[in-house]
């Protein structure tokens, strides 16, 4: 080693979680060394959240022009210039990149080492000719696209979310394998940009979401021209002269789907190859995941894990939350635990957002609850915008406490934050029903749904009798 550094914290991985730990700890006075073997900003900036939302924005813009007729405006899309579209996506990444750059973090006082790192001892990490002896180490190595063991797939030049944004030309016919959030978002974006799109899902589209809400998204995808094959397992893949064939097996037997490109979007996997975890005394379970306690500590109590590396839900906002837990534990010796109220959003059009317990989970644990709902078709802002697909739904305990919530519709990802706060702070429907919400906004659906809790009592025969009696003395 050409250099040995003594540091308070060593972070491995410069994605969202790792950067949050590094910036926070350094600005609070800790000495920090950050290793990153690839690009600063990790998956979210370079191949995930940022480029996918930029592509979705382009798709929504292309979709909006033909829809303008419903407002009395004639508009159309002449053509999609794929080179300019790609430049737009890359431009968005470039605009955000300085926030995650080596220069910025160096300015925070972080020593950034652009090299692959590995453990050489319980608190020792080395890479790029540098050895770091740290008081605490944070594993923030993210995840990579999962590749299913489909016969023949290794002979196909398939795409993942890490490569799909690099396409120089528009896919003529895109096969999307996987009907989760990533698959649905990218399928819809490409369909709205003029591609033929076929989506294949072995089970049910958005199967972890509320079925009624997922149905709203399903109908939207079909309206946009996405050909859906649910309950269809891919059993073979192979190259053709101008693309790829995917053989899928469903209830009706086997079907051959042909496309110019294949996008594999079946989730992401977490791996720790090359880290030499054993040399640090870090244990993994039978599935290769880190064994963590609620404080995000590994079996080596001086080593933490954040973000995807922690093995739970794979969200950028969760990685940021994890960073706060680690900083409180490592810097301030506070026994902070990771037990967040975690919202999730699928950024299709309409968006689908949820937080807290869902109906199936509540029934499974025998929880008594009532369902409150309000449709966007009865929301003035949605009506004015001619965009009324979707609804909100609340699960409420007998005492009025909010247990879970679902929103599907335009702006669902914004509205769900209100429910997240309500669940985290153990608020009741009365707290939301009593809010003064700006008119006209889509957030009114939350107030309306909460207010419906009181309708049976407020407009009952008993209430009418009481009012008539009191009015005698008015």
UniProtKB/TrEMBL annotation:
Pyridine nucleotide-disulphide oxidoreductase dimerisation domain mapped to chain residues: 343-449
Binding site for NAD(+): 178-185, 201, 267
GO molecular function, one term: flavin adenine dinucleotide binding
Record key words, sorted: Disulfide bond, FAD, Flavoprotein, NAD, NADP, Nucleotide-binding, Oxidoreductase, Pyruvate, Redox-active center
Binding site for FAD: 53, 141-143, 308
Chain ranges of the FAD/NAD(P)-binding domain: 8-320
InterPro entries linked: FAD/NAD-bd_sf, FAD/NAD-binding_dom, FAD/NAD-linked_Rdtase_dimer_sf, Pyr_nuc-diS_OxRdtase, Pyr_nucl-diS_OxRdtase_dimer, Pyr_OxRdtase_I_AS
Disulfide bonds: 44-49
SUPFAM superfamilies for this protein: FAD/NAD(P)-binding domain, FAD/NAD-linked reductases, dimerisation (C-terminal) domain
Cofactor note: Binds 1 FAD per subunit.
Cross-referenced PROSITE patterns: PYRIDINE_REDOX_1 (PS00076)
Cofactors (names): FAD
Family: Belongs to the class-I pyridine nucleotide-disulfide oxidoreductase family.
Protein name: Pyruvate/2-oxoglutarate dehydrogenase complex, dihydrolipoamide dehydrogenase (E3) component
């Amino acid at each position: 080693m050409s250099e040995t550094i003594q540091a308070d914290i060593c972070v491995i991985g410069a994605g969202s979680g790792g950067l949050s730990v590094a910036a926070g700890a350094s600005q609070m006075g800790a000495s920090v060394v950050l290793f990153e073997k690839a690009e600063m900003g990790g998956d979210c900036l370079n191949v995930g959240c940022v480029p996918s939302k930029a592509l979705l924005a382009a798709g929504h813009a292309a979709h909006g022009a033909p829809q303008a007729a419903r407002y009395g405006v004639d508009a159309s899309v002449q053509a999609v210039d794929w080179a300019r579209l790609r430049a737009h996506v890359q431009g968005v990444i470039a605009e955000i990149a300085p926030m995650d750059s080596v220069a910025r973090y160096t300015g925070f006082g972080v020593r950034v080492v652009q090299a692959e790192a590995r453990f050489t001892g319980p608190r020792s990490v080395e890479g790029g000719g540098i050895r770091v002896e740290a008081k605490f180490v944070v594993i923030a190595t993210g995840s990579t696209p999962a590749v299913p063991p489909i016969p023949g797939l290794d002979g196909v030049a398939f795409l993942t979310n890490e490569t799909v944004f690099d396409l120089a030309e528009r896919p003529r016919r895109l096969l999307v394998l996987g009907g989760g959030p990533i698959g649905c978002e990218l399928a819809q974006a490409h369909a709205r940009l003029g591609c033929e799109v076929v989506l294949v899902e072995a089970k049910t589209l958005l199967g972890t979401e509320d079925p009624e809400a997922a149905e709203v998204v399903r109908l939207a995808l079909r309206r946009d021209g996405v050909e859906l094959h649910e309950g269809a397992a891919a059993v073979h893949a192979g190259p053709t002269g101008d693309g790829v064939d995917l053989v899928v097996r469903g209830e009706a037997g086997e079907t051959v789907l042909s496309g110019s490109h294949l996008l594999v979007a079946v989730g992401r996997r977490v791996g720790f190859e090359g880290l030499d975890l054993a040399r640090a005394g870090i244990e993994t379970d039978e599935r290769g995941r880190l064994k963590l306690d609620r404080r995000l500590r590994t079996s080596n109590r001086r080593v933490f894990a954040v973000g995807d590396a922690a093995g739970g839900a794979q969200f950028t906002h969760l990685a940021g939350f994890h960073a706060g837990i680690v900083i409180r534990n490592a810097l301030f010796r506070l026994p902070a635990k990771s037990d967040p109220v975690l919202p999730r959003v699928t950024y299709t059009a309409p968006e689908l957002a949820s937080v807290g317990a869902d109906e199936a989970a509540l029934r499974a644990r025998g929880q008594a609850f009532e369902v409150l709902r309000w449709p966007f078709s009865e929301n003035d802002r949605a009506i004015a915008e001619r965009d009324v697909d979707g609804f909100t739904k609340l699960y409420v305990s007998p005492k009025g406490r909010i247990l879970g919530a679902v929103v599907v519709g335009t702006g669902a990802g914004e509205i769900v934050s209100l429910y997240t706060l309500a669940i985290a702070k153990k608020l009741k429907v009365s707290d939301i029903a009593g809010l003064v919400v700006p008119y006209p906004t889509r957030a009114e659906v939350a107030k309306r749904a909460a207010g419906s809790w009181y309708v049976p009592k407020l407009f009952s025969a008993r209430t009418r009798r009481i009012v008539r009696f009191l009015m005698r003395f008015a």
